[in-house]
Amino acid sequence: MEYRQLGRSGLKVPELCFGAGTFGTSGEFFQAWGVTSDDEARKIVDICMEAGVNFFDTADVYSKGGSETALGKALAHLKREDVLISTKATFRFGKGPNDVGSSRYHLIQSLEDSLKRLGMDYVDVYHLHGFDATTPVEETLNSLNKMVSDGKVRYIACSNFSGWHLMKSLSVSERYGWSRYVGHQVYYSLIGRDYEWELMPLALDQGVGALVWSPLGWGRLTGKIRHGQPLPAGSRLQTKVVVNDGPRPDEEYMYRVIDAIDEVAKETGKTVPQIALNWVLGRPTVSTVIIGARNEEQLKANLAAVGWKLTAEQIAKLDAASETALSYPYWHQRQFEERNPRPI
């Protein structure tokens, strides 16, 4: 397992991170991704540790806190210093007017509750799950900085920010000498390359590492979806709430990319998801790729996505198949690459 710097920080993280979204599952959305029992969760954790994946990602809203509770139990037999834990806050967690957002009030309460559910004194990476335009950035970052000073958080990161959200936040941290975001948890896959347009150049310039979520395109690059064939019975894409809450790539585009992945898979003897994961791992700014698994078999298959490299020709084939039309101003900037070179 390769270990990489998390952005411009001193923290080294494994190139793969395990996403505990299937732990402690409740509710239609999370059950569609898979349900992992407590016994299975511990086995999965042990397989990860044996493979060098000591980084585990969760969030307060995953199964209404159930994921954090189940992850804490699954890790209880390990030394705390041997694992890295990432969790998140910002999304609504409760019915009150202050039970949502990135205010000082909500973040302090969210962190305390997350630590109780995890059974831990601190988290290694604390994410804002999304941007809160109703709270001053200064209030949010001052609160996060205090958490770092108090030793309850080691590093701070964000998720699902736009370019200006992230840049403004970094500027405020620099102005006051506060802790800065060293990571950005982002959606990025062979059928979702928008991250490259602005967020990747920003990350390169500012030293923000990408923690990639849903690298298999919201369950579309599992190798089970084929042109002209019905969705598999157990696919999460059979669940309306999952489809409605996620990206919706054009079908012809998606099948074109899948066909290219299939070709590369045959050349390498690897599976479709292994090719998709390996491609993301080779991109600039990527510090870690978050993988999930319903069971041990899926986990071991995903772990096999590392330890080898695609050839330049194979990467070019995948790049060409997954290229999409750019939005303004990116299509205009792309015409002047001597002044606006591509990050890749």
What can you tell me about this protein's structure?
This protein is an alpha/beta fold and 344 residues long. It has a single domain (3-334), classed as NADP-dependent oxidoreductase domain (TIM Barrel), CATH 3.20.20. Helices cover 40% and strands 15% of the residues. It has helices at residues 28-33, 38-51, 66-75, 104-118, 137-149, 163-176, 199-206, 240-244, 251-268, 272-281, 296-303, 312-322, 330-334, and strands at 3-5, 12-14, 16-19, 55-57, 84-89, 123-128, 153-159, 181-187, 209-213, 286-291. The strands form two sheets. It has an eight-stranded parallel beta barrel, surrounded by six helices. A two-stranded antiparallel sheet has the order 1-2. Helix 5 crosses helix 6 (163-176). The longest helix has 18 residues, at 251-268. The model has no long low-confidence stretch (mean pLDDT 93).
How many extended strands? 10
Distance between the termini: 23 Å
CATH structural fold name: TIM Barrel
CATH architectural arrangement: Alpha-Beta Barrel
Number of helices: 13
Which range best describes the helical content: under 10%, 10-25%, 25-40%, 40-55%, 55-70% or over 70%? 25-40%
Q: List the domain count as a whole number.
A: 1
What is the element string, with H for helices and E for strands?
A: EEEHHEHEHEHEHEHEHHHEHHH
Global mean pLDDT? 93
Keywords:
single chain; alpha/beta; TIM Barrel; two-stranded antiparallel ribbon; 13 helices
How is this fold's topology laid out?
Elements: E1 3-5, E2 12-14, E3 16-19, H1 28-33, H2 38-51, E4 55-57, H3 66-75, E5 84-89, H4 104-118, E6 123-128, H5 137-149, E7 153-159, H6 163-176, E8 181-187, H7 199-206, E9 209-213, H8 240-244, H9 251-268, H10 272-281, E10 286-291, H11 296-303, H12 312-322, H13 330-334
Parallel strand pairs: 3-4, 3-10, 4-5, 5-6, 6-7, 7-8, 8-9, 9-10
Antiparallel strand pairs: 1-2
Helix pairs in contact: 2-3, 2-11, 3-4, 5-6, 9-10, 9-12
